[in-house]
Structure formats: C-alpha cells, structure tokens
Specification:
The structure holds 2 protein chains of 2 kinds. In chain A, 63% of the residues lie in helices and 2% in strands. Chain A is built from 6 helices and 2 strands. A two-stranded antiparallel ribbon of chain A has the order 1-2. Chain A starts with 5 loop residues before the first strand and ends with a helix. Chain B is mostly helical. Chain B has 3 helices and no strands. Chain B is rod-shaped and about 195 Å long. Chain B starts with 7 loop residues before the first helix and ends with a helix. Classes of the chains: A mainly alpha, B mainly alpha. At the A-B interface, helix 1, helix 2, helix 3 and helix 4 of A face helix 1 and helix 2 of B.
C-alpha cells in the first residue's frame, strides 16, 4: 500500500480507494470476464499459499509433523471442531466446503495486508458471491433434508400463537438479510481498514504530521491483523450457524 | 492500485479509472469488473476446494488417524510392559521368599546334624569319663583295702609287742580278736 496521496500543486490529494481498483495485469485494455487482473493475481496467490500449506506441507505424511504440516493440522482440527460443535455431527460432510471458504477468506485477508497487495475480500463482488454461495447451500440443503419442515425455521412454535405471524415476518426478513450482512460485514471491514491506512499514509506526506501518521499506520496495521483473522473466523462460524439451521431447523 | 513509483501520468490514469469506475468513486461498485472478479473467484474456490477435498483433507485425516492409532498402540504396549514388569517383580519376590525358606531349612538341617554329632560325642565323652571314674574308684578301693590290711597287721604286731613289753604273754588269738573288734568300732 504505497502512498497514493500526491501533493499536486496545492494541498493534499487523497486517493484512499485507488488501491481497490481492479485493473488488467497485462496491458491496459477493457476488463472482460476472462481478463487476468490484479484480483486474479491475488486470488491465485491465495491458492498458491493454501496449496503450499496443505498439500506441500503435508507431503511427508509424517506421524511426527513438520512445522508446516503441524500448522495445517492445527487449522484442520480447529475448523473440524468448529463445524462439529456449531453445526453438528451430520454437518461434517460440509467440512471441505467450510474449510475452503475459511481458508480463502483467511488467506485473502492476510495477503491483502501485504504492502502493495490487492485485497480481494475488500470487494463486495467477492464477498457477495461467497455469502450467496452459503445462502444457496443452506437453503437448498434445508429444503432437501427437511422438505417443508424447513419452513418451521420461520414459525416460532414456542411463541404465543398471536405473535407467530409477526415473528415469521421478522424471521423471514432476517433470513434474507443474512447474505447481505454476511458479505458486507467482511467486505466492509477489510475495505475500511485498508482505506483508513491509506488516509493516514496520505498525511505522511506532511513532514510535521508524518511521525504521528506513521505511528497510526503501524497501530492500525496491528488492528487490521486482528480484524483479518477475526473476520475470517466470523465468516466461517456464521456459515456453520447457518448450516445448523439448514440441518436442524426449529428453535 | 497504483504502484509506489507513481508518475503524474500514472496518477492521472488511476484517477481516470476511478472516475470511470463509478460516480461515487468506489471501485467496489464498479459493476464492469464484477464478471471478472466473480469468474476468477469461482475458479479460485473450485481449485481450493479440489486441492483440499481431494488431496489435503484425506491426507491430513489419515495422518491424524494414524497418529491416534500409534498413540493408542504405544499406550497399550506400555501397559503390557508395565504388567510384565509387575509379573517379573512378583516372580523375583517369590524367588526371594523361596530362597529365604531354603536357606533357613539348610540352616536348621545343619544345626540338627551338628546337634546329633555333638550328642554322640557327648555320650562318648560321658562314657569315657564314667569308665575312668570307675577305674579310679576301684583303684582307690584297692588302695583303701590294702591300707586297712596293713593297719590291721601293724595293729596286731603293735598290740603283741605292747603285751609282751608289759610282761604278759601275748595270746595271738585274743589279740587278733581284740584288734578286729577295735577295727570295726
């Protein structure tokens, strides 16, 4: 994340959002769906990192693991336990799916924190696809597994009868808001953190403020390290919670 | 995202991009990049999914299962070895007790043997001592008898001498009877 605020004639010019621009990696043409862009590059790097950790790291299949294999096993165990505890034992068949989402979001978040990098998860297009994938999976699995009983999710049978229609409307709205909140929570957090850092970076051009600015960037970078992990975790655990609703509807 | 070595030209380009992206200037809302991002995201997710579900997850779960198996086996083996060690200790203790019993038996036997030998020797010694005692007593009795005879003879002779010295005529028979009577007294 280079300084992109330039002193152009008078005063500071901030371009805190320029870091999110998707542009072709080669040449300068229009962006088709197949164009290799900076987003493609950083998604590919996340794939490389994940493959390096899980496939190359576990290459030895060692009983006494190497460091990399140990990290892979730790993440495996952590996610497995999360799926099992939150979504239930019968959700284990969704474990590869959940692990895929978790790893992609986690690695994209952290790769996006590298200077000069591109944060793919700061884009609503990416997070919306992830969230819609979860939403569709949950809805389809819910109806396939439970049939019409899945609608019991919206009919709060423990509430007084008079309240139930109102609660049903609320539950229905909250159900359809899920993908929106799910995606905007992640995208917004990552985007906001990166934009704030860039704004502070813009102030660093002024000699008097620059120590404060650099200090602030460091502090926010630390915070963003936390946010990157926490948001990936939150995204994953919400996925598990929604999966639990699909597998075990009813309150 | 513009690189660190920004030129005015580059910045202008980026700005133009930003302006072109959307009115609000948020690249996130530039819908023209959506198909691109979504396409590459789906490619990415599919690749990650297959790498994880086909290679990584089976491999790691196999390793974890193997490790759990190894640990269980090792614990079982340790348990077995512990039992063996306990059995060995019990056998050792038993051997020790047996050895002690054997030792005390041998000691008792030896004692009895020695006692028996001792008894025999004692008996022999007693017999020898009593034989010697009897012999000595006999000798003493002989000596005493000899002494009594001599005294009698001396007493008769002395009595005869005394009677003749007194001027009487010693009657041998009377003297002998008198001496014998005196000796008895």
């Amino acid at each position: 994340m280079a300084t992109e605020a330039h002193e152009e004639g008078t005063g500071l010019v901030f371009h805190p959002l320029d870091q999110f621009i998707v542009k072709p990696l080669f040449g300068d043409g229009p962006i088709h769906w197949y164009t290799i862009t900076n987003a493609t590059l950083w998604m590919a790097l996340s794939v490389v990192a994940i493959v390096a950790l899980f496939v190359l790291g576990s290459r030895g299949r060692a009983i006494i693991p190497t460091r990399t294999q140990s990290i892979g096993e730790l993440i495996y165990g952590f996610t497995y336990k999360m799926v099992e505890d939150v979504a239930g034992k019968d959700a284990i068949k969704f474990f590869p799916y959940v692990l895929t989402l978790f790893m992609f979001v986690l690695f994209s978040n952290y790769l996006g924190l590298l200077p000069m990098s591109f944060a793919t998860t700061s884009h609503i297009a990416v997070t919306a696809v992830l969230a819609m994938a979860v939403f569709l999976t949950v809805t389809i699995v819910g109806f396939v597994k439970n049939g019409s009983k899945f609608l019991g999710l919206f009919w709060v049978s423990s509430a007084p009868l008079a309240l139930r229609p109102i609660l049903a409307v609320i539950e229905l709205i909250s159900y359809f808001v899920r993908p929106v909140s799910h995606s905007i929570r992640l995208g917004g957090n990552i985007m906001a953190g990166h934009a704030v850092m860039k704004v502070f970076a813009g102030f660093a051009a002024v000699a008097v403020i620059s120590p404060v600015s650099v200090g602030a960037i460091s502090a926010i970078y630390g915070l963003e390290m936390l946010v990157a992990g926490v948001q990936a975790y939150v995204f994953t655990i919400l996925t598990c919670v929604y999966l639990k609703d699909a597998l075990h509807p009813g309150h | 995202m513009a690189s660190g070595t920004t030129s005015v030209e580059h910045a202008a380009d980026a700005a133009a991009h930003g302006a072109e992206a959307s009115g609000a200037g948020m690249p996130q809302l530039d819908f023209s990049t959506f198909p691109n991002q979504i396409f590459w995201l789906l490619v990415t997710l599919v690749v990650i999914y297959f790498a994880l579900s086909r290679i990584a997850i089976p491999r790691i779960s196999a390793v974890l299962a193997e490790r759990a198996g190894t640990i269980t086996n090792d614990i079982a083996a340790a348990e077995e070895l512990k039992q063996k060690a306990e059995a060995a200790e019990a056998a050792y203790q038993k051997a020790l007790v047996d050895a002690r019993a054997e030792a005390s038996r041998i000691v008792a036997e030896a004692k009895a043997e020695i006692q028996a030998e001792l008894d025999i020797e004692l008996k022999k010694a007693d017999a020898a001592i009593s034989a010697k005692t009897a012999e000595s007593e006999k000798a003493i009795a002989e000596i005493r008898a000899g002494a009594v005879k001599s005294v009698t003879a001396v007493a008769k002779d002395a009595a005869k001498e005394i009677v003749s010295a007194m001027g009487g005529k010693a009657d041998a028979k009377a003297v002998t009877a008198a001496v014998t009577a005196r000796m008895k007294g």
